[in-house]
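User: Can you help me understand a structure? I only have the sequence.
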Amino acid sequence: MSPADPGRCPAPPASAPGSRPARLWGPPPWLWLTLGLFAVQVPLLVDWLVWAASRSGTQHGRSPAMLTVVALTLMRLLPMVFLLAGALSVVPPQPRTWWVERRFQLKPPAHEPDGTPHVYDQMRRLLTDRAPGTELRVSVRRDLLARVYPGGWRTTRVGVFSPLVSLWQRDREAAEAVLLHEIGHLRYGEQHVAGLGSPFTGLVRAWPYVFAVFGLLPVALLFAAGNATAPLMSAQIVLVVLSVPKTLLIVVSALWSAELTADRYAAGTAVRTAQQRALNALTQSPRDTLARLYHPPVRLRLWFIARTEQPVAQLLLVLLWPAAVLAENLLDLFGAALAYRLLGDSPAGDATTKAVSLAREQLTSGPTWWAMLVALAVWPLLAGLWPRLWGWRGRAVGTLSPAVYATSALLPVLILILGLLPAVPKPGEPSQADSRVPDATAAPAAGGSKAAEPTLPTPCPSPSKPAAPARPEGLPSLDTPLRPDTTGSAAPTDTPKRSFRTLRVASVEPLSGSLTQAQDIADRLAHAHWTLSPDGTLTTLDADLPELRTTAVHDGTRLLHGERTRTTDVSTTTTWVDARLHPQAGPTARLDLIRAATGITHAVVSCREFDSTVTAAARLTLQLEEL
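Assistant: Let's start by predicting it. Here is the structure, written out as tokens:
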């Protein structure tokens, strides 16, 4: 740029006379779509927080395993907390503006630095020319070049830091390219979700620490304490570890897409070689490692600005975020298959089948791919209106080809088609077509002297009640051996009737099934009332337990056992309970319980039989108080 023309950049090439201005300026605003997708999960966030709070105050909610589950749950919900805070900062943006300017020491350029009497005036003229109404703020900090942030709903401020002033003095064109890149963010209103004080960049910066405190530390403490539930946490740990790249994939790809779009705007308005020099200067500025995550690598940006008008670069710009969503779905599939396998209740093939089924359901019932397809479909209509929503009055630069959008839409269409396809039967399973009754009027087989006899249809199986399940193997026993009562009966006949209530649940240990199932049992027993009858039976009406009969008594300690089977037209469930009632000093007693339940379901649907068996077992210790 010639010194005789200060504050001006080369104007973009004019459109041909009479040509219609292009409306496809760039990719859809993936940052805003990401924020919206996180916002629709707010009800889930509220439900989980209420669940965690309701259990944190109970005794069994303070067990090491329960605290670990709560910590892991909070860690998985914190991304929504960050992005919900970002959504709330959009309206109104003034609190964020105040915090940013206080945090980064940004002030109006009232005084020029010594030796550069016109630098800030030249920057103001550039901003006014390219983005009228944009305000300039300056800071003496040296860890950044320039960043955008909101000054209001339709106003924007650009923060300029000392290294950019130095670059302006020695390489004016490169410094202008930096400001033009920041202006490139304004067309999409990205100053509200990106730039200084962005919830996205805040999430990326905080995520490693969040994962260490709420993810790794509780699990390490659980294993170090030798808690019996630690091996059963393996599946949960796998899902939590995979949540780290999953969270970063979506957020970082949205930020990269915004940065490359802004680079494309700068490439269309600044001198190309000047933008390359600006990017090289960026590598020399002091930045921490986490800050490099939410900006694409400089090599990628240099490659991109050299090919901004080529189809491969345009496809990268549009498909970067959808590709990250696809990678997230593949991580979900891998994590679910591994988690099912670690639970030990499914062979490798069945675990993969369950994971694929879950992934198909998430693809079609979740909003992500549908929202992505809608965004690609409507963006050609909104591309001209969206910038005006944010008060943009600059020129359109760097339009994309409509063919790029048509090609990009093939990815979500293909994914949704795969999710909507009917499930393929497992090898060896008859399909519904195989079970159809053959046509009795079919023609005889050709070439035979005798007509082929029609094949008799296979009779459709009838629904039936499954047999009662056997007691699960491997259940622990109540260790204290007791001698049978010397009276020859389960309990003395002169034992008075006694009543108890559950004072607290002292411990919960899942033996089979999930920790959530064990916690459900504990919840039902937490406020139960118990009755010990003179004949030695212990009953409660507040929990799903069979009647417990005394099998042995020694020094006041009772061993009890109960068993109950319930059947329906298609299922049979048997519950076994072994218990030990141990008296203590004062009006209290300790009740040790081992509860196991197995349910068998046998159903016939479309002449196909379906069988499933589910077992859940838990060991609990209850503190009782006599009434």
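Now, to help you interpret it: The chain has a mean pLDDT of 74. The longest helix spans residues 234-269. Let me know which part you'd like to focus on.
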